[in-house]
Each structure stands twice: as C-alpha cells, then as structure tokens.
Amino acid sequence: MLNAAQRDLVRATAPILKQHGVALTTHFYARMFQHNPELKQIFNEGNQQSGAQQQALAMAVAAYAEHIDNPSVLAPVLTHIANKHISLGIRPEHYPIVGHHLLASIREVLGAAATDELIAAWAAAYGQLADVLIAEEAQLYAAAAFKQGGWTGWRGFVVAKKEQESSEITSFYLRPADGGSVPDYAPGQYISVRMFVPEWNLMQPRQYSLSDAPGNDYLRISVKREQAGNIIGQVSNLLHNTVNVGDVIDLAPPAGDFVLHQDRTTPVVLISGGVGITPMMAMLKHLVKTGSDRAVHFVHGCRNSEVHAFKNVVNQLATQKSSVEKTVFYGDACPDHSHDHLGYVDLAKIADSVILPDADYYLCGPLAFMQAQIKSLQTMGISAERIHAEAFGTGGVAA
Predict the structure, then answer these.
(1) For 279-305, how does the pLDDT look when each residue is reduced to its tens digit (9 = 90+)?
(2) Same domain (yes/no): 205, 128
C-alpha cells in the first residue's frame, strides 16, 4: 500500500511522463525484449515497429500517475486491459518481469532525478496496479475456463469454411479441433488468433471480433485483407493468403468488455465504419435471433459497394424484421444505389431516426471515425454512459 509521501512522488512525475513518456516506454520495451526475448511473442510486433504500443503505454503510465490518489477512476480502462491480457495469455508470473524492467528504465532514463525514494514509490505503485490486474484477470480466466465449452490458453480450431464477404473481407468459420463444444459469449466480444509470422520469426497474437451471434457450433471472424507490406496487417494477410479450409489455428477464449447490454429493452443504434461492422453483425444477429423487439438502427459507412461486407444480410434482416432499420453511407457514388447517403457517416443527417429516447449507441471503426461519431452524438445531447465504443486497427483487429 502506498503511503502519502509515495503518492506525492508518483503524482509529481505525471508531467514528466506526459512530456517524455514515449522515450521511457521505448527504452522499456527495448530493455525487456533484450533480456526476456520470449515475451516478444506476446506483444504485437506491428504496433512495436509503428510506435503505437510505446505511445499507448506512455499514456497509460501518465494517467496512472495522475490518478494515483484515486485509481478507481481508471477502473473501466483496467477492465479493458485485463480482458486484453487474458486474450494474450498474460499470467501473474509476467508481472515481476515487467515491473523489474519498468523500474530499471525509469532509473536509466531519468538519471539523477530517479532517486531511491522515487523508485521505491513507483515500485509500490506498480505493485498496487499489478495486484488489481492479477485479481481481475483471475476472475476472467476462471469464467472462461468453467463455462460449457470453455478453456484458457490456446486451443486448436479447424477452419470449416472461408467465405468472401466483400472485395476485402473474408469470414473464417472455426470449429474446435478436439470435437468439443463452443462456449457462449457476449455479442461484441473478440477472440485472439495466434500465428507464426516468418518475416519476424515470431508467433504473433491478434484480436478479431466475433462476427456472428452466439449459440452456433462455430466461432466466426471476418478479416480485412491489407495492402502488402503493411506491418500492422501481417497476421490478417497470413489468414487470407495461407490459411485454408481444413487447417488448424490456435485461438484464445472470447474476451472483451465492448458488449451488447442484453438486460435492457431500450433502442439500440449500431454505428460502424469499414471492417468495424464485424461486432455489429454479432449484436444485430443476436437481437434478431433471440426475437428481441428492441428498436434497432444499423448505420454503416464504407468506401463503396465493392468493399461493403454483409450488405445482403443486413438488407434481408431489415426487410424481415420491422424493428430493424438500416442506413448506409458510401464515400464513392455507386451505380447500384445500394447506399442511402453519399459521404462520410453524418449522424446529423439522420438525427430524426437515430436520436431516440434512452437508446444505447454502439460504435466501432477506425479511431478518427470513432472520435467524429462520439463528438457528433455528444453535440446532439447523448450522455457519455449511453455511448459504447471499440476502436479498430487494421484487419478487423480490436484495438
């Protein structure tokens, strides 16, 4: 437990971390991978090379220092991190390794400013954070293991079918190679896929949203093909180019805190951009499959008809189910007129049908898309607790 003096020391480093945090985290990762190279197979090498992981960790460390007096403010963030950790197979024994290299990096980067008292304060702060995450992850691991069809770690799944959904997106239908059952999951959750990337000589995990409703004898992910050479899309392109029907790939159990609130009867507005449509398909199909009478408005934006995944499925559901309405935005004009509006998703254009009493708004897509839609909703008076968001990287990867 941190004492008052230690909290003061940690809090005082927040401005330094905001200014120099990326230098610290870059040094930290380089140091850790030099001394513990086995951990490179847990971390996303694409994000390492692009600098995204260093930036994200720097922001997280600075936020923790800033809120050290009341870390409960960060509870939603910690839940998000805990879910990501169990999908990557991070275990309690990893925390001392990370803590050792983090403290050493603080001392090596800050130099004389890193007094023994400061290092001791950060050691206590890290220990407090590790205890919180380990406890939450233990609950998540137990829940994943003890449900029907559940497991922890990695489990082999056979590719039962590959189905092209658009010019860029392909669905993979996955069944347990051991012949066992598939666990239930919450619509909106993801699974991790682990593959060997020859260019990096590493096993690499990536998260992909489950794109179908729970309750089937398979798990389905829908993956976007990326341009050749895109370091962020290495695993996605391996799935497209090298994985065929009958092959076995490793999966971690379903995880994630971006989920449909199933205990409510109020309207649902699903807003997606590009491959961010995948968790929305799980939510939409679950609502229809369970006979829900909740009003649903499905809003999607993409470049054109060629890249528009699940177009026919959504059209059919909107036709068959009176409670489902859909609106499509295309960046490019298309002769088949399968879109309703031209341009980026603009909720103000359809405010009469999407600004609904007590509705929940679920958003998924690239970060800039997400930021624009959240700002638009807030401008139109939607409270933060009714906006639920999941940012996507490339290839249908939950970020």
Answers:
(1) 999 999 999 999 999 999 999 999 999
(2) no
